[in-house]
Structures are given as structure tokens and as C-alpha cells.
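Run folding on both entries below.
>entry_1
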Amino acid sequence: MRQLFGNLEKVLRGVDILRVMDRETLSSEEFSLEFEALLTSFRARGGRVEFADAFAR
């Protein structure tokens, strides 16, 4: 899982907006914690995170 998030971190360096399409995949606690850390880092660099369910309302 560390390699997955390391690769994702590299990809996100060139991205301004990240849209999370499905929160259901975050049901695993370990995955969710790693993902939240990734989002925190992404936001700290000035990235914006959008959750798709916010657009479905």
C-alpha cells in the first residue's frame, strides 16, 4: 500500500484539483488513514479536493 500511495503522491504533484468519486472505497481504516494523509499533503501544496457526492445533491 505504501508504494501505491507513493506513486499517487508523484502523480498528484502535477494536479491542481482532485475529485474523489467514491467514498465507499475508503471503508478500510488503514486505507482511509493513508488517504487522508495524502489529501492533507495535497492541500498543503495548494491543491483542492472535491468529493463527487457534493455535486450529486
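>entry_2
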Amino acid sequence: MARKTFEQAMEQLEAITSDLESGELPLEVSLKKFEEGIKLADFCNKKLDESKKKVSILLEKNNSLTTTPFEHDDY
């Protein structure tokens, strides 16, 4: 399976939100979609946190544009 990007996860999350907001799904399907949405939201939050850390590292390096690796998990 290919690695998911932030943008792909957001698109999936938007589609799930639309499906759930329609109110036309059976309860069981709604619950599965809701669970998938929670996982996607968590994935997106982690990606945003990683980006925030990287930007902070870039800005803290004496105003120079050098990067310093930081520990993170692959998602």
C-alpha cells in the first residue's frame, strides 16, 4: 500500500464528513465511517504536528535555513 499524504487524508475525511452529514447511511455504516474519520483526523493532526516542529527547528537555527532531524514515527 502506498504511503498516504496529508492531502489524500484530508480529501477522504471531507468525503466521510459529507457522507455522514447526508444522514442517509445505515447506522452500522455510519459508525464505520465515523471510526475511519477519527483515524484520518489523528493522522492529519500528527502530520501537522510534524510540520510545526520542522518549522520551529528551521526558525530556531540562528535564523538560518538549515534543518535538524527530529524523531518521529512513520504513519
